[in-house]
Amino acid sequence: MDFLLGLEIVDGPLVLGTLVIACVFVAVLLAARTTRWRLLRLLIAASGGALVAFAFTVVWNAVGAFDLYLPAGIVRRLMGTGAALGAVIACFWDPPLWRKVLAAVAIPVVALAGGIQVNSYFGLDRTVGALFGVTTGQTIDVGSVAKGEEPDREKKLYEWTPPAGMPAGGRRGSVEIPSSGFAARKAALYLPPAALVPEPPRLPLLVFMMGYPGTPDVTAMADFLDEFARQHHGLAPIVVVADQVGTKGDPTCADSIAHGPAESYILNDVVPWARHALNVFGDSAHTAIGGYSNGGACAFKFVATRPDLFSGLAAVSPEEFPGAESPGPALRDVFRGDQKAFDAAKPASILALHPGSYGHVTAVFTSGDQDPTFAPGVERAAKAAEAAGMHVAYRVVPGAGHVKGALEGGIRPVFDILYPALELSPPRIGR
Questions:
Q1: What are the pLDDT digits (tens) for 48-90?
Q2: Where are the alpha helices (DSSP H) in 123-218?
Q3: In percent, how much of the chain has pLDDT > 90?
Q4: CB 200 within 8 A of CB 229
Q5: 178: which residues sit within 8 A by CB, 6+ positions away?
Q6: Is the CA virtual torsion 220, 406, 185, 225 positive or negative?
Q7: Each residue of 301-345: pLDDT tens digit?
Q8: What is the per-residue pLDDT for 384?
Q9: Comparing C-alpha atoms, which of 116, 272, 108, 250 is closest to residue 180?
Q10: Which of 111-120, 184-193, 225-234 has the lowest mean pLDDT?
């Protein structure tokens, strides 16, 4: 089961394999003696399927469903899938019986292949498990991972010399984090190469959160950090991708009766657990929090709420504030209709309550240049953080929308800036 849930559905053989199999099914069904009537039927059915898919995308974009714009690449994939399904359905009128049976089997095969192609374009759910909201990866026994002694503060972390035999890449898997009441799914964990040697150095901690809907998945982060670690003597933060969403819908990063203590889980369960169980520094100077989309909004709010815990913020294509994507349900379900409470829970409101508390925080905000829906809110959030005293960098990711390329493209500028801030590389001159 773990093997199936761990299958890659963004890159790799499954993406190409399902497409090839679907094409073979369609080719076999079409390869029959064709009369004028059959050709007309196939053309009408394929055109109809493509038009239905096109109309779906037009309506979707017009109403702004889920605040997710479907770009031309997705439209082409959906139209191709619709045309193939239409042609397959038209083959039900072809004799003999085996062709009808084959058409019935081909429908889910073609639909699956089309769905994987759409997901591959977006690149967000990287595994089968992530697609179904299941955290994949072998469970890591954190008790078996070596822990270093208290660091010599006369020597900077980036001056650490790796021993011979250090692994070329980090380790990734899942961990169960005890919760005091929130129904969280398993977290994902990344241990960089420097954490896997017999006498490892203490490392910075990054708590990261994914979007909604989404699954705690460390794949994109781990892939990039393996590359970055090779350039920095095996050094990278230990990353915990925690579940701020749970199983009952979007809790908007707040404690509520409807969804449980989502905020308390991250701040009072995840961070203390990580500092106790993992080989990380226990201070705010080496602790960062971040997230993508919904998770980025949560990270911004949590830094605003607890600046004593964090010195780094990585907001990758974040919502402007928790609940910004669906304010109606957030107001109704989480804040029970209390508009003042909803407004008070927004990061900008929280920042105003703690003047002078954020001068130690390095914050990175990113947005895609193809993301007209979220980008204005990201800019406003970055300006609010800067006005509160944070050291803010705002980076636009070329060619990225809110989903396609946003996470992978946003990670690099985040770590370009946070590496020196977390002592993983020498400080930048003129910071």
A1: 999 999 999 999 888 766 656 677 778 999 999 999 999 999 9
A2: 128-131
A3: 68
A4: no
A5: 269, 273
A6: positive
A7: 999 999 999 999 999 999 999 988 778 888 888 899 999 999 999
A8: 96
A9: 272
A10: 111-120
In a domain, 42, yes or no: yes
Q: Which of 303, 273, 304, 269 is nearest to 288 (CA)?
A: 303
**Which residues make Cβ contacts (< 8 Å) with residue 339, sequence separation at least 6?**
331
Q: For 211-239, write each residue's pLDDT tens digit.
A: 887 889 898 899 999 999 999 999 999 99
Q: Which two tokens stand for residue 345?
A: 């829970």
| 307 and 404 share one domain | yes
Bin 16: left if φ > 0, else alpha if -120 < ψ < 50, else beta.
alpha
Q: Mark whether 140 and 117 lie in a shared domain.
A: no
Domain residue limits at 77: 2-122
Cα separation, 164 vs 84, in Å, equals 55
Cα angle: 177, vertex 357, 260; to 5 degrees:
30
CA angle 175, 176, 179 (to 5 degrees): 145
Give the whole-angstrom CA distance, residue 309 versus residue 160. Answer: 25
Phi, psi angle pair for 106, to nearest 5°: -70, -30
Structure tokens at 19: 């497409």
Identify whether residues 117 and 237 lie together within a single domain.
no
**pLDDT per residue over 319-331, tens digit each?**
999 988 778 888 8
Beta-carbon-side half-sphere exposure of residue 97 (alpha carbons within 13 Å): 0
Name the helix (H) or strand (E) containing 312.
strand 312-316
Asked if residues 26 and 136 have their Cβ atoms less than 8 Å apart, the reply is no
Residues 300 and 164 grouped into a single domain:
yes
Contacts of 333 (CB under 8 A, 6+ apart): 249, 256, 258, 259
Whether residue 339 contacts residue 327, with contact meaning beta carbons closer than 8 Å, is answered with no
Q: Is 47 among the domain residues? A: yes
